[in-house]
UniProtKB/TrEMBL annotation:
InterPro entries reported for this sequence: Peptidase_S1_PA, Peptidase_S1_PA_chymotrypsin
Name of protein: Trypsin-like peptidase domain-containing protein
Superkingdom field: Bacteria
Residues spanning the membrane: none
PANTHER family listed in its UniProt record: LYSYL ENDOPEPTIDASE
Signal in keyword set: yes
Keywords assigned: Signal
Signal recorded as keyword: yes
Signal sequence region: 1-25
SUPFAM superfamilies named among the record's database cross-references: Trypsin-like serine proteases
Gene3D superfamilies hit by this protein: Trypsin-like serine proteases
Top-level taxonomy: Bacteria, Pseudomonadati, Pseudomonadota, Gammaproteobacteria, Thiotrichales
Length: 479
C-alpha cells in the first residue's frame, strides 16, 4: 500500500534560504551512550524481571476433573464482522504518520457471575480460579479490566493457553502504576499476549473469601497483526507493501550496538491499539533511569502511557539470518508520562520495566544539524525485525498554508533516504548522527513518505527536532 506524497524535496529546496542556525547555541549538550553492563550492580539489577509461574498448571486440570473441577470456560466473542474487517483497509486520517494501527477494542459481556460462583481449586496457601476470554482469529489479545477491589495478597497471573509457561504476575501494589480512572472506575490493561485467547489465574490467599473480589473485563483489544510474528488476519492488512528496508544485522557492528537502545512497543489509545518505536536514553548522571523517547502521536497522555508493553532485541543475529523471533525480550508494566509536545511530536516517558541485560542507554545531542549531515535511522516497521536506514539531513522546515516550507527555526528536520527507508511502525524512532566515533540521537520520527523506487530510495522523513524539545526534556535528561 503506497501513501500519498505530502511534500517533495524539490519543493522544499526552492523555498527560503539554506542557512541553518542553532536554536539553543548557548546550551549545547552532548551525552555519550551508556551500556547497561557499565551501570553499578544495584542499579543494573533493578531493571526488571522476576519470572512468574502459575500456581496451578492448566495441564493439571484433567487430574482435578474427578474432584468436580472444570476446565476453564472461555467467554467467546463473535468473529469480526465484514464491516469491521473493512475498516482495516481504509487509509488513516494522517497516513504519513508512521504508527501502525493493529487492534480495536471490543465490548465484553459480563457473564462470569459473582466471584464466589467461579470454579475455585485449592492450592498451597489458598485457592485459585482460571478465567478466559477469546476473540476468534485475533493475532494478539489483551483485556481492559475494571478493578473494584483487589485485597492485599490477591494475585493475578496472565497467560495464553498455548504458552502457559510465559506468565505475567501482578498484585494490587504492582498494578498501581497501570491503574487509571475512567468514568469513576479503576481500570487497567493486561499484558498483550500472542493468539486469540487471554487467560488469568486469580489467587486468593487463605483468610480472604472470593466474594471480597470485585473484578471484571470490560473490553478486549483484538489485534489483526502481530508485529513479532508477521501473522496478519485474513482480509485486513494483507495489502501493506514492504518498502526498501535494510536489516539491522546488515549494518556495521557500531550501528548494531546503537540498536540495543531501540524497542518496539504497543499501546492502547482511545480503544485503538498501535505499535510504534522508541529509544532508551542516557542522562547526564548516567544512572540508568529508563527514560524512553518516542512520538507524541504514539503516546500523548498519561493514560496511554500506562498501557505500554515494550519488546526488545527483535533483530536478527546475522545479515540474512532469521532468528529474530527467538531473541525477543518483553517488558510489560506500562510507563509514566514525563512530558509531551504535539508541535514537536515528541514524548518522554519513564518505563516501569526494561530488560535486565543487554540494553544501551543511547547518547544524544541537542545541537542543530548542518545541511548535508549524514544521518541514520534505527526502527521497527510493519512485521519485520529491527531495520536500519542511511540518509542525508536536508534542512529544517515548518508547515504553512502552502505545505512544508524551509525554515531554520522550523520544528522538523527533513531527511532524504539514500539506503533503506521508514514505514508504518517506525513512528517515535530516533534520528542518529555520528561524530568522531560517537553516536548521538538528535530527533524523533514523526512522519514520512514511502519510496516509489528502490534504486535509489526517494522516500523522505520528518523528525521532531531534539534541540527544540530539549528545554522540555532537560529536567530529566540533564538534571
Amino acid at each position: 500500500m503506497k501513501y500519498p506524497v505530502l511534500f517533495s524535496i524539490s519543493t522544499l529546496l526552492l523555498i527560503g534560504s539554506l542557512s541553518v542556525l542553532p536554536v539553543y547555541a548557548a546550551d549545547i549538550t552532548q551525552v555519550d551512550g551508556l551500556e547497561q553492563a557499565d551501570l553499578p550492580p544495584n542499579e543494573a539489577a533493578a531493571a526488571w524481571e522476576v519470572p512468574a509461574t502459575l500456581r496451578l498448571d492448566p495441564t493439571d486440570f484433567p487430574k482435578h476433573a474427578g474432584r468436580g473441577a472444570l476446565v476453564p470456560q472461555d467467554i467467546v466473542l463473535p468473529p469480526l464482522s465484514a464491516a469491521e474487517l473493512q475498516q482495516w483497509q481504509q487509509t488513516a486520517d494522517e497516513p504519513q504518520q508512521r504508527r501502525t494501527r493493529i487492534g480495536m477494542s471490543r465490548a465484553v459481556p459480563n457473564t462470569l457471575g459473582e466471584p464466589d460462583t467461579w470454579q475455585w481449586l485449592a492450592v498451597e496457601g489458598g485457592q485459585v480460579a482460571h478465567l478466559g476470554w477469546r476473540s476468534p482469529d485475533a493475532k494478539r489479545i489483551r483485556g481492559q479490566f475494571v478493578l473494584g477491589n483487589l485485597p492485599a495478597g490477591v494475585e493475578l497471573r496472565f497467560y495464553a493457553p498455548h504458552d502457559p509457561q510465559q506468565v505475567y504476575a501482578y498484585t494490587h501494589d504492582t498494578l498501581k502504576p497501570q491503574i487509571i480512572q475512567q468514568a469513576g472506575e479503576a481500570t487497567f490493561w493486561s499484558p498483550s499476549l500472542a493468539g486469540d485467547t487471554l487467560r488469568v489465574e486469580i489467587f486468593v490467599p487463605e483468610g480472604i473469601a472470593p466474594d471480597a473480589l470485585a473484578l471484571r473485563v470490560a473490553k478486549l483489544s483484538h489485534s489483526v497483526l502481530d508485529p513479532l510474528t508477521g501473522a496478519v488476519q485474513r482480509g485486513t492488512l494483507e495489502d501493506n507493501a514492504v518498502a526498501c528496508f535494510v536489516d539491522m544485522a546488515c549494518a556495521t557492528p557500531e550501528w548494531q550496538l546503537r540498536g540495543s537502545s531501540t524497542a518496539l512497543f504497543l499501546v492502547v489509545n482511545e480503544d485503538i491499539e498501535y505499535f510504534c518505536t522508541g529509544e532508551l536514553l542516557n542522562n547526564t548522571r548516567a544512572d540508568g533511569k529508563p527514560y524512553f523517547l518516542t512520538a507524541n502521536h504514539c503516546v500523548d497522555t498519561a493514560a496511554v502511557a500506562t498501557t505500554l508493553n515494550s519488546f526488545w532485541f527483535y533483530e536478527n543475529s546475522s545479515c540474512g539470518g532469521s532468528d529474530a523471533r527467538d531473541k525477543v525480550r518483553r517488558a510489560d508494566g506500562g510507563a509514566t508520562l514525563l512530558v509531551t509536545d504535539k508541535t514537536l511530536d515528541t514524548t518522554l516517558l519513564s518505563l516501569n520495566k526494561i530488560p535486565a541485560q543487554g540494553v544501551l542507554f543511547a547518547g544524544w545531542s541537542n545541537r542543530a544539524l548542518p545541511s548535508g549531515q549524514a544521518i541514520a535511522g534505527i526502527h521497527h516497521a510493519l512485521t519485520l525485525p529491527k531495520q536500519f536506514a542511511l540518509g542525508t539531513f536536508v534542512d529544517y522546515g515548518t508547515f504553512a498554508a502552502s505545505g512544508l516550507v524551509r525554515d531554520p527555526q522550523g520544528e522538523f528536520a527533513v531527511v532524504r533516504w539514500l539506503n533503506g527507508a521508514t514505514e508504518q511502525g517506525a513512528s517515535g524512532s530516533a534520528l542518529w548522527f555520528e561524530e568522531q566515533g560517537k553516536y548521538y540521537v538528535n530527533g524523533v520520527l514523526s512522519r514520512g513518505t514511502s519510496s516509489s523506487s528502490c534504486e535509489p530510495p526517494d522516500g523522505i522523513a520528518l523528525y521532531g527536532r531534539f534541540d527544540q524539545a530539549y528545554p522540555l526534556l532537560k529536567p530529566w535528561l540533564s538534571p
